Amino acid sequence: MKLFKTIISNWRFWILLAIIVLGAGLRLYGLRIQSLWLDELAGWNLSHSSTWAQVIQNVDKGDISPPGYHLVNFLLERFVGDDEVILRLPSAIAGIFSIIAIYFLGKQLYSPKEGLLSAVMLAVLWCPVYYSQEERPYSTLVLFVLISTILIIQLVKKLFRPQGRLLPTAILYIVSATIVCYLHYFGLFLIFLQGVSVIIITLFSRKFKATLLATGVYSAIFILFLPWFFHFKSSLGFRNGWISAPTYRFFWDYLVFLFNNSPAITYLVVILFSFLIAYTAYLLIKRRTRSEISLNSTLFLILWLVLPIGLIFLASLLIRPMLVDRYLLISMPAAYILLARAIFLIPLPKLFTTLVAVGLVGLLLYHLIFQMQYYTLQTKEQWRQAVQLVVQHEPLPENSKIYGCKWRSFWNYYFQHLNSSLQVEGIACTSADLPQFASTIETNPPSHIWLLSAHMVPDTSTLDYLEKNYTLDQHYALIGAQVWYFSLK
Q: Domains in the chain: how many in total?
């Protein structure tokens, strides 16, 4: 009863609950509005297997990421289904729990007010909402990055000032950090940075027992990751041709990416960050011991935001390009907590500062729904809509054939989920496909041909061959996809 009365009288609890409900609504609404795009369909294809071993084999051969998220989706597809909403639901749920996790992290580093403002920013900003509605590991990665960060802070405190039981915290951190490693290699890199930082701090503090314990914790994580370690080593040599060499503009672009793809909002954020950095520098110069905890928290968050990006930027220049904004969602929480801290440090009356925070949140929510038209504007490749154009013409004329520009199984996923018996029967995309395609066509010329493409377009040799032998009756240009309908001359 006492606990119940405490909860009722705790206004912060109700604000956090309202933020969670808002964030849940933004994530669960419209999971089917956008079609699955190439990467999501590729994720489905990797986990669409009969056994765990086959999923791991698929990931090893067909992806450069660890298998963690695909194994979760394997179970989901096997026992629940593989509808668009079901495939995206784990990301949405992870996004909702991330709101709770960032509140506790902000509270742990500063105070409940920074926790609440960080939580509401994570709830309403485009970037975390978007990746909470995608069948990819990024939303789950953010959740476990937050959990592992909360736990490593607690672990370091217990290493330096023994209080409470160390073992449960260490075990929970080992589990959460291992999950991060199995979700994404940039997550593995972040855990590596955490480990190096903790060991350096304990060594410089001459806390050799703490160093030994920390070494044990990270040795346990390494042992748990060891089954995949050699796959990781082989993927280091893989080159992604679609990732271009980075420029210094990336740092600005990354902030724009985090803040609703809006340069105007990002300029405001940079001003607030500059104020926070100046205030932190002032505290360092003056050595204000009263602010030691908040100062350490700010320096920790700045390093969390800057260090992974900076080191991966250097690696992209010196080794091979690997800098992609969504891969760096591992640093996203740091940016939101730093912004919350900057707002509450503004030297203005408390009421005015609160109004600024509420106004900023309202602006971000308005920008997401009305300016960006998040729930009405189609932005992803329209694989589903391309297939719908064919299905709408059922029954097709006799001896009609459907071809796809690569990714036959991806097209057939949508034919199946639109309750159609039609299927893509072959590939017609590049000059390498043309001999077999032409041989099939000439052996038994179809009366009509549907050609579907998304993410890439057929080369001129394919289209020239079709236009030489067939009449183009319809051409549909969609977002990131196209459909051609030919009839025999």
A: 2
Whether 341 and 440 share a structural domain: no
Q: Which domain holds residue 224?
A: 2-371
* pTM metric for this prediction: 0.94
Amino acid in the structure at residue 94: A
Look at residue 469 and tell me if it is in a domain: yes
For the chain, what is the radius of gyration of the CA atoms? 26
Per-residue pLDDT tens digits of the chain, which is 489 residues long: 555 555 555 888 999 999 999 999 999 999 999 999 999 999 999 998 888 888 888 887 777 789 999 999 999 999 999 999 999 999 999 999 999 999 999 999 999 999 999 999 999 999 999 999 999 999 999 999 999 999 999 999 888 876 668 899 999 999 999 999 999 999 999 999 999 999 999 888 888 888 999 999 999 999 999 988 877 666 665 556 678 888 999 999 999 999 999 999 999 999 999 999 998 888 888 765 555 566 789 999 999 999 999 999 999 999 888 899 999 999 999 999 999 999 999 888 888 888 888 888 899 999 999 999 999 999 999 999 999 999 999 999 999 999 999 999 999 999 999 999 999 999 999 999 999 999 998 888 999 999 999 999 999 999 999 999 999 999 999 999 999 999 998
CATH number, position 431: 3.40.190
Please give the C-alpha separations between residue 5 and each of 2, 10, 404, in angstroms, as whole numbers.
5, 9, 62
Q: With contact defined as beta carbons under 8 Å apart, do 81 and 88 qualify?
A: no
* C-beta separation of 448 from 485 below 8 A: yes
Rounded to whole angstroms, the Cα distance separating 143 from 340 reads: 19
Residues in the chain: 489
Neighbours of 351 (CB within 10 A): 8
Q: Tell me: do 19 and 116 sit in the same domain.
A: yes
Spatial neighbors of 424 by CB under 8 A, at least 6 apart, are 402, 403, 404, 408, 411, 412, 415, 452
Instruction: Decide which of 371, 403, 423 is a domain's last residue.
Output: 371
Give the closest residue to 384 by CA, choosing from 87, 109, 145, 175: 87
Residue (of 90, 114, 190, 111) closest to 145 by Cα position: 190
Beta pairing class for 470-478 and 426-427? unpaired
